Amino acid sequence: MKRAADSGSDERLLKRANSSLFSIATLDNSNEEGIGESVEQLASLNCVQDGGYFVGCSEDSEEANLAHSGGRNNCDCRTAVVFEAAEKHFDRHNKFHKERPARILSVRDCLSKTTSSTEKSILERCHDISNENSRTSCLGEEDFLRVHLPGYMQILDRTSCCCNDRLDNEAEQYKSIYFTNSSVQTAKIAASSFCRLVGDVVCGKYDNGFAVIRPPGHHAEPGFAGGYCFLNNVAVTASYAIERLHVRKVLIVDWDVHHGNGTQKAFIDDPNVLYFSIHRFDNGNFFPFSKDAGPRIVGNGHGEGKNVNVAWNEKNMGDDEYLVVFEKLLMPIATEFDPDLVLVSAGFDAAKGDMGDCSVTPECFARLTRQLKTLAGGKVVCALEGGYVRSILCKCVESVVMALLDGLDDTWKDETNSFYKNLGDKEMLDCIDPSAAKSIRETITAHSQYWQCLKEACK
Questions:
Q1: Which residues have a Cβ under 8 Å from the Cβ of 456 and sit 6 or more positions away?
Q2: Number of Cβ atoms within 10 Å of the Cβ of 40
Q3: Cβ contacts of residue 407 below 8 Å, gap of 6+?
Q4: Where are the beta strands (DSSP E) in 4-147?
Q5: What is the model's pTM?
């Protein structure tokens, strides 16, 4: 559902309201321009329910609602979390840089204080393994070299003894990068924390988890830094899981608003890693400004069909569009791929009110997470990527962690049944933004030859 200020006309707003599948954003007295008008119009159409949710929210399961409110601790999964704020990694020239330690500290504070109908905070309901991590990396050099080139790693390691001028010179070789002498070591600790968490999930100690770590990683290519990333946390961890934990196949889901160009390059020819990205593309004019983020880049050699890009070419994509991607593409392909482990590059800059000019709500991220938990025996582990408006970031992480904690197996079924009930006889691609529908069709066409589940869609 698009806000009135974004839709351009009342007519378009009302049309989207009538066709909405999954607009579940809570109406929370937001001060965003235009939100009051859109709520008033929707209310006049009887599209706002007493609970404060748009049409599409499942009301069938009282038990599920209790779980979402935090009132069912006995149904919690064994969810582990780890925090790494990398406080020695910061922009020396701008202490208010949007990618700074405060992102992680704010999330931890939020999870520590938030209580619903129980006395426990969300963090207390989780297993916080941060203190179990030593301040040194558990990874050897070979673990990074599975993803990154030796010469590149040598360049990074040399930053630990550079003067400030040299650090600035090194940073200027890349897009949106800054260094301190401790940056690379703290990044290695972050990647190590994620690997430890994944190891605990793979061996069955925990059911799932969330690594709230920085710096982010998905833009870090094998031999090139960019976009605040210089070590690719998710790629290093996926390789670690396959090589050292003997995981057979890994699904990487990247819902950051930016394409994970580094992750794509790391696994472009790997048949055992399925990379699935939903991102703004704008025909190659959105960061990282690469045509390789388009739907026709499907993988090379044995990895053909294992690289899936859903590339938005317009702003303001929201809950409906993301849920349809999951229903039409991600879940059918992922089920056919049959992964043993799901890693999520969990960036939240596609959230409504963040900097990506999209409109995904925290509850939508939670719903996507619950769907992913139906794969790989529930072994889903998230790593923070983007998300720079801290108040919004905190709500999104909180919602995803709550979804990971949710031990009620029927929650996702109720949500899916509600989705199809709202859909009725309509074709779901006709009920979302036309530009988004076109992007989804382009991806289906590009991958129909590789996946049995998509062949019928192209007939």
A1: none
A2: 11
A3: 67, 72, 75, 76, 77
A4: 79-84, 127-128
A5: 0.85
Q: Which two tokens stand for residue 293?
A: 């983020």
Provide the CB-side half-sphere exposure for 106 (13 A, CA): 18
Taken in order 10, 15, 17, 20, the sign of the CA dihedral is negative
DSSP state of 330: I
Of 68, 218, 219, 447, catalytic: 219
Give burial (CB, 10 Å; 0-12/13-18/19+) of 395.
Answer: buried
Residue 219 among the catalytic residues: yes
Give the pLDDT of the chain (459 residues) as one tens digit per residue.
Answer: 333 334 443 443 344 444 456 544 333 333 333 323 333 333 333 332 332 222 344 434 334 444 444 444 668 999 999 999 999 999 999 999 999 999 999 999 999 986 655 578 999 999 999 987 655 567 999 999 999 999 999 999 999 999 999 999 999 999 999 999 999 999 999 999 999 999 999 999 999 999 999 999 999 999 999 999 999 999 999 999 999 999 999 999 999 999 999 999 999 999 999 999 999 999 999 999 999 999 999 999 999 999 999 999 999 999 999 999 999 999 999 999 999 999 999 999 999 999 999 999 999 999 999 999 999 999 999 999 999 999 999 999 999 999 999 987 678 788 888 888 888 888 999 999 999 999 999 999 999 999 999 987 666
DSSP labels for 120-168?
A: S-HHHHSEE-GGGS-SS-S--HHHHHTTS-HHHHHHHHHGGG--HHHHH
CA 189 and chain centroid, separation: 21
* Tokens, residue 443: 């991806």
